[in-house]
């Protein structure tokens, strides 16, 4: 009975994932004809992606940050300011790259195609595993129907294509979900290990520390605990931030600054403030000025509008649902959605809003909104996939 149930649920998740992956490529293929002009608004495409020998509707999922992750995987942090990208994802791409290399390729100029093949496979595998464990996490609180529809909402989310791109999104989601799931299961030692790995993937992994602390408090409250249980919880919470801390130590040893991953943001061209935090209302004011200065039908106005909406709507949903969300979930979601805005821009918020995944089952429960929401998600997603794979900035 258990095996049959396991196979049925797992099979549905695999089918959803494969359908999503195929549809991403289909949209990217038709984007070649709908958006014939290549945007090319990022460097190194001709040195990192074109040598793969694949059509652009496939290597387009390595655009923008992807080229930097691939260069780091091959060459380490040799290029200036690439330390803004945390190390775990490119390390895994490098270690797990089992494809034969091209000995005729000048790797002083080009990135071997094997790194793109490896990264693409790993991103897909990480996301498939993330879907499975996210479903298991959801089933702790919701029925099967709500849980599966939450997966569908995640898959059709307008920027979900980043889970299949050469980005850290899929790895971070997997590690975050595993840490949260294990925290709910009171296995805080393992939860801390996965949190540490998440914090070596993105700085937002540090938000798993307060989540774990809240879950430990709920678990320990009013109980008489054994020394071993206390020790496991303590070790778990202590090591949860070690990924970021170890990276900071590495930066101090190699660059001379613990916080170089922050100070390198501004020269890297992300339009971010590296000197001080910018409050959320100030960022809103900045965007209102941007809207007033741009032509309404320009791609720049469209990008600013998308960034603005993807910053405000998830935070508004957190306010609406704060009484219905588990407190630890609410704290994690607030941090992962708000912290990126402290650099003074909503740039990349369409991508960062993926970290509001714990809101999805609450949206699913608003059944009257579900079908219109899926329609809007798919429509916007098609547009964003087309722009991204054709070399236009999205997030």
TrEMBL record:
<feature type="transmembrane region" description="Helical">
    <location>
        <begin position="369"/>
        <end position="389"/>
    </location>
</feature>
<feature type="transmembrane region" description="Helical">
    <location>
        <begin position="301"/>
        <end position="322"/>
    </location>
</feature>
<dbReference type="GO" id="GO:0031501">
    <property type="term" value="C:mannosyltransferase complex"/>
</dbReference>
<dbReference type="GO" id="GO:0004376">
    <property type="term" value="F:GPI mannosyltransferase activity"/>
</dbReference>
<comment type="pathway">
    <text>Glycolipid biosynthesis; glycosylphosphatidylinositol-anchor biosynthesis.</text>
</comment>
<dbReference type="GO" id="GO:0016020">
    <property type="term" value="C:membrane"/>
</dbReference>
<feature type="transmembrane region" description="Helical">
    <location>
        <begin position="329"/>
        <end position="349"/>
    </location>
</feature>
<feature type="transmembrane region" description="Helical">
    <location>
        <begin position="231"/>
        <end position="250"/>
    </location>
</feature>
<keyword id="KW-0337">GPI-anchor biosynthesis</keyword>
<dbReference type="InterPro" id="IPR007315">
    <property type="entry name" value="PIG-V/Gpi18"/>
</dbReference>
<keyword id="KW-0812">Transmembrane</keyword>
<feature type="transmembrane region" description="Helical">
    <location>
        <begin position="188"/>
        <end position="219"/>
    </location>
</feature>
<feature type="transmembrane region" description="Helical">
    <location>
        <begin position="12"/>
        <end position="35"/>
    </location>
</feature>
<dbReference type="GO" id="GO:0000009">
    <property type="term" value="F:alpha-1,6-mannosyltransferase activity"/>
</dbReference>
<feature type="transmembrane region" description="Helical">
    <location>
        <begin position="115"/>
        <end position="134"/>
    </location>
</feature>
<keyword id="KW-0256">Endoplasmic reticulum</keyword>
<dbReference type="Pfam" id="PF04188">
    <property type="entry name" value="Mannosyl_trans2"/>
</dbReference>
<feature type="transmembrane region" description="Helical">
    <location>
        <begin position="146"/>
        <end position="168"/>
    </location>
</feature>
<keyword id="KW-1133">Transmembrane helix</keyword>
<dbReference type="GO" id="GO:0006506">
    <property type="term" value="P:GPI anchor biosynthetic process"/>
</dbReference>
<keyword id="KW-0808">Transferase</keyword>
<protein>
    <recommendedName>
        <fullName>Glycosyltransferase RgtA/B/C/D-like domain-containing protein</fullName>
    </recommendedName>
</protein>
<keyword id="KW-0328">Glycosyltransferase</keyword>
<keyword id="KW-0472">Membrane</keyword>
